[in-house]
Amino acid sequence: MKIIIHGGFFSESDQSHEVKVAKQNSLKSIAAQAFEYLKSHSAEETVVYVVSLLEDDALFNAGTGSQIQSDGKIRMSASLMNGQNQKFSGVINIENVKNPIQIAQVLMKEDDRVLGGNGAKMYATENGFPDYSTEIPQRRKEYEEKLKNGGKGTVGCVALDQNGKLAAATSTGGKGFEIVGRISDSATVAGNFANEYCAVSCTGVGEDIVSNATAAKIVTRVTDGMKLEEAFGKTFTELKEIDGFAGAIAIDHHGNIFHQDSYPTMVFASYDGDEFEIFD
């Protein structure tokens, strides 16, 4: 059993030592909770559980604490992929829900498994998810500063369960002040992908991740026999050619864990029951 999680990159509001330590402590705590949960749950159930914890932590840009778009509203995206059955589900630009990843989980049972905007919100309401404002004062302050000046982040989890099954989940509150209708990588296979050989969750600039097809490329290369570290190396070399800004976390079916970023610093933590690895 293995767990690796990420909390996006440092943003303009993360420049203090106190914030860094808070994120380290939060990720370590969540990684430990995740590993305990994984002992009695599937990889799919675990990544949803973990991403929900990250969405509920205002330190991170997903769920509570999401960024505000250019029209003053918060729209979030999240997706889930089960590596065993190759099912992908997600919500795009959903508003006023607490945990977008949980709606993606419910969508797994549907034929239509990726919903956007008003349709996603209607589906959430029909399935018992109440209205919830994810705005926090800090994000409103940042938004108002951007209005004056013309002025990144995502969370994710990859898990390998005791039966050798892989899953990945990713959730984002957007990059902040984006054009209304903009779609990030987080609810696409470029940013969140898994099969029976490998699972990957990405963070960074969505447009760069989509242009590079980052998650899908890494998984495909591992599937074709490339070692996990080599698959990352080739994919991030291609990302560098477009000066792409991204980070990714992954686990392969052998239990190997790997992470890489193209610019500092991706916020991450991994745990295998014995040792933690935390970003520095």
Spell out the key features of this protein:
35% helix; 8-stranded mixed beta sheet; 4-stranded antiparallel beta sheet; alpha+beta; 280 residues; Glutamine Phosphoribosylpyrophosphate, subunit 1, domain 1
CATH third-level topology: Glutamine Phosphoribosylpyrophosphate, subunit 1, domain 1
Indicate how many domains the architecture comprises.
Answer: 1
Q: What is the residue-mean pLDDT, rounded to a whole number?
A: 94
| Helix vs. strand class | alpha+beta
Which sequence of SSEs, written as H and E, runs from N to C?
EHHEEHEHHEEEEHHHEEEE
Binned strand content: 25-35%
Total number of helical segments? 8
Biggest pleated sheet = 8 strands, mixed
CATH superfamily: (Glycosyl)asparaginase
Morphology call? globular
Integer-rounded radius of gyration: 17 Å
Portion in helices: 25-40%
Q: What top-tier CATH class fits best?
A: Alpha Beta
